[in-house]
UniProtKB/TrEMBL annotation:
Disordered: annotated segments: 28-51, 361-408
Record protein name field: RING-type domain-containing protein
Feature: compositional bias, Low complexity: 377-390, 399-408
Coiled coil location: none
Domain RING-type: 59-96
Length: 425
């Protein structure tokens, strides 16, 4: 019994040490918005001998890739080149010393020494380019419903031209992502797509789930459940509520079934039957999932493997277009506000700007618009577009609109409708 207790005590101590080590690693990381200014209070560090890590060692941050980076000046060599590019505070995760330079040793290449700031900037530029060219699709839901099998089957059915270069990589890296790899692993109907499975499978911490999803920068969210277990469908209903209240991204539901394990017919029917009722219960209608699919994970059939990827690509492209339109509208709103504040833009110039950028037919300044007064404040000329280009005026009209709710600020549709003349003063 003493030997058993001793073994248990050692196991507990090892677990505690591992937990403390993990906390120190996490503490060395920060959000992208954290300051990365140098800290003069960092004490001088004596370099450690840069011994090569054991062959079976793993990066102390991702626990997946092998370490290939040596930090200067502390000399620790337990990070991979991917994770070192995300050290926004530029501190060693082991000793917390400020890292100035890194020596990177990639397989078959010479050692390259760079500044940590340079490595981080290169990662941001590379990431921005990849994100621009690749749709990001995240699969999430409870464990053991077949999410990984679904993604691997999609990757196999729609292989990306560069996927063969990654055949020797660990299969988990092709399915999961920690937000460090946004490159395409599938080519679906002419689109570069990154299919990723969210590691987290429970909603014990909503904040952590939302943080995990944000890191992956999704264009489309696919919620997965088993067609054989009704409880998993109830779980994705909870997931869906959290996601639709925090992300304006298209969502799809996928019910996963196995060809060789149909299970009780009533269970399968009831689960499928609940889908339409659950969707109808979501109010307002624009918050409902865009579509739902039944997908077969067996080898004999490919049910759902045509409709699901088509919806993924089409909805992803629509989401990108809407995001671009919102960005353009916000930029134009800021530009108009700046010009108006400076008094450097006239009514006709504003109308031409809107017409050129958005294709909206705006009346010229010579056109009489009944029911609209002249522009007040900084101009005595008549307002040809029939309303002030003041954002304050737009907010007031928007908040007083009987068809809309007050206090919502500027939306893309309301902003364009207002410019086009659909709102009366």
């Amino acid at each position: 019994m003493a030997a058993v207790r001793s073994s248990q005590t050692l196991d507990e101590e090892e677990a505690a040490v591992a937990h403390l080590a993990h906390l120190s690693v996490v503490a060395a990381y920060s959000d992208e918005h954290d300051s990365d200014e140098d800290d003069d209070r960092t004490p001088p560090v004596s370099p450690l001998p840069a011994d090569d890590p054991p062959p079976d060692a793993a990066c102390v941050v991702c626990f997946e890739r092998q370490p290939n980076v040596t930090l200067d000046p502390c000399g620790h060599a337990n990070l991979c080149d991917v994770c070192v590019s995300r050290l926004v505070k530029r501190r060693c995760p082991t000793c917390r010393a400020r890292a100035r330079k890194v020596a990177i040793q990639r397989p078959g290449e010479q050692v390259v020494t760079k500044g940590v700031r340079e490595v981080i900037q290169e990662r941001k530029l590379r990431e921005s380019k990849v994100l621009e060219d690749t749709l990001q699709v995240v699969f999430l839901g409870p464990e053991k419903v077949g999410k990984k099998t679904l993604v691997r089957k999609l990757i196999s059915k729609f292989p990306h031209p560069t996927s063969q270069l990654n055949e020797d990589h660990h299969s988990e890296l092709d399915v999961f992502s920690d937000g460090t790899d946004f490159s395409a692993n599938a080519a679906i109907y002419g689109a570069n797509v990154r299919l990723t499975v969210l590691r987290r499978t429970t909603l014990t911490s909503r904040r952590m789930v939302l943080d995990d999803v944000r890191v992956l920068k999704p264009d489309v969210l696919v919620l997965c459940c088993s067609a054989h277990v009704g409880a998993t469908f109830n779980t994705i209903l909870s997931w869906d509520k959290v996601l639709r209240n925090n992300f304006q991204k298209p969502r799809l539901w996928a019910l996963l079934t196995l060809d060789d394990k149909d299970g009780p017919a009533t269970t399968k029917f009831d689960t499928a039957h609940d889908v339409s009722g659950a969707i109808s219960a979501i109010i307002p209608t624009d918050l409902r999932p865009k579509s739902h699919h039944i997908c077969s994970l067996g080898e004999q059939f490919s049910i759902g493997f045509r409709s699901l990827p088509k919806d993924i690509v089409s909805l992803g492209r629509i989401a990108r277009d809407q995001e671009l339109a919102a960005s353009i509208a916000l930029e134009e709103a800021r530009s108009l506000a700046d010009h108006e504040a400076a008094g450097t833009i006239g009514d006709q110039a504003a109308a031409e700007l809107v017409r050129a950028n958005n294709g909206i037919e705006v009346p010229s300044s010579s056109t009489s618009v009944p029911g609209h007064g002249s522009r007040g404040g900084n101009s005595s000329r008549g307002n040809g577009v029939g309303r002030s280009f003041s954002l304050r005026g737009f907010r007031e009209r928007n908040s007083n609109n009987p068809n809309g709710s007050s206090g919502q600020g500027i939306s893309v549709s309301n902003f364009f409708n207002w410019l086009a003349g659909s709102h009366e003063s």
